[in-house]
């Protein structure tokens, strides 16, 4: 094989040569078709990859995208870092155009049609920084104080509505605190049962140690003790005889 591959063009010639030399009994069925429509050949050069140098320079960062940052990002990280449980509250993430915050009047933190959440504090803080020329900590304190006030009012409304509904005969089921207390009580009772079993096992083992069947070693020890006791009792008579002599 050289630079180009001409074997597809010689398939018909090879089949004819095999038939003429009587190595094949007949011509293949595609013999006439290949004569009418000869196969094509790829004359394009194969793709050659450039060798990678050993000491290659690091690619330039000129064409890398720049990091996208917004001034609200730092405010969000500060607020949710101080109030991590706000992330556990359910939120409505459906938006109309992706930039709905600009359609509200953030001269007040409570907006019609929008629930009060951490984003309200962030947008209120941004408005105070731009329009009231407040510093970042001062604007954060003002927005946070307003947030606490309205969130406290929401809790009072919710509690009053719950009490009114209970007074009228409604039943809400168990709350998260009651469910948590039940789970804690179940774990406590299971631990008490386990501890009682452990104490009973230890008491049974201790009683078995003192009320066991005497073994041969204990019998031998008792015999030796009796023999030594008899020797001690016999020593005074021997001493008395020696003294009289």
Outline the biggest β-sheet: none
- Topology pattern, helix = H, strand = E: HHHHHHH
Tell me the number of strands: 0
Kindly state the mean pLDDT as a whole number?
82
Proportion of residues in extended strands = under 5%
Distance between the termini: 136 Å
- Our Rg estimate from Cα atoms comes to 49 Å
Fraction of residues in helix: 55-70%
- Which parts are unreliable, with pLDDT below 50 for 5 consecutive residues or more? 214-218, 238-245
Anisotropy-based shape: flat
Structural class: mainly alpha
Give keywords.
56% helix; disordered C terminus; 37S ribosomal protein S25, mitochondrial; Ribosomal_mS23_fun; structural constituent of ribosome; mitochondrion; ribosomal protein
Describe what this molecule looks like in 3D.
The protein is an all-alpha fold. Among the domains are: 7-36, no CATH class; 71-167, no CATH class; 178-208. It has helices at 11-20, 31-36, 71-82, 118-131, 136-167, 176-210, 216-244. 6% of the residues are buried. InterPro entries: Ribosomal_mS23_fun. Component of the mitochondrial small ribosomal subunit. Pfam families: MRP-S25.
Give a short summary of the structure:
The protein has 245 residues and is an all-alpha fold. Among the domains are: 7-36, no CATH class; 71-167, no CATH class; 178-208.
List the SSEs and their pairings.
Elements: H1 11-20, H2 31-36, H3 71-82, H4 118-131, H5 136-167, H6 176-210, H7 216-244
């Amino acid at each position: 094989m050289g630079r180009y591959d001409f074997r597809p063009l010689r398939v018909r010639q090879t089949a004819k040569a095999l038939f003429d030399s009587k190595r094949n009994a007949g011509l293949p069925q595609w013999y006439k078709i290949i004569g009418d429509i000869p196969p094509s050949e790829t004359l394009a050069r194969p793709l050659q990859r450039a060798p990678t140098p050993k000491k290659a320079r690091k690619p330039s960062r000129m064409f890398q995208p720049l990091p996208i940052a917004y001034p609200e990002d730092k405010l969000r990280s500060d607020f949710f870092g101080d109030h991590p449980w706000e992330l556990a509250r359910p939120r409505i993430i459906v938006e109309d155009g992706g930039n709905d915050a600009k359609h509200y009047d953030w001269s007040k933190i409570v907006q019609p049609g929008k629930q009060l959440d951490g984003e309200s504090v962030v947008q209120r803080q941004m408005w105070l920084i731009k329009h009231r020329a407040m510093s970042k900590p001062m604007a954060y304190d003002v927005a946070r104080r307003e947030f606490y006030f309205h969130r406290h009012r929401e809790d009072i409304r919710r509690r009053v509505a719950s009490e009114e509904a209970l007074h009228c005969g409604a039943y809400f089921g168990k709350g998260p605190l009651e469910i948590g207390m039940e789970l804690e009580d179940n774990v406590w009772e299971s631990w008490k049962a386990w501890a009682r079993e452990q104490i009973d096992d230890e008491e049974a083992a201790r009683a078995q140690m003192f009320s066991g069947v005497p073994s041969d070693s204990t019998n031998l020890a008792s015999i030796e003790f009796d023999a030594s006791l008899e020797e001690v009792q016999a020593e005074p008579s021997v001493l008395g005889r020696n003294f009289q002599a």
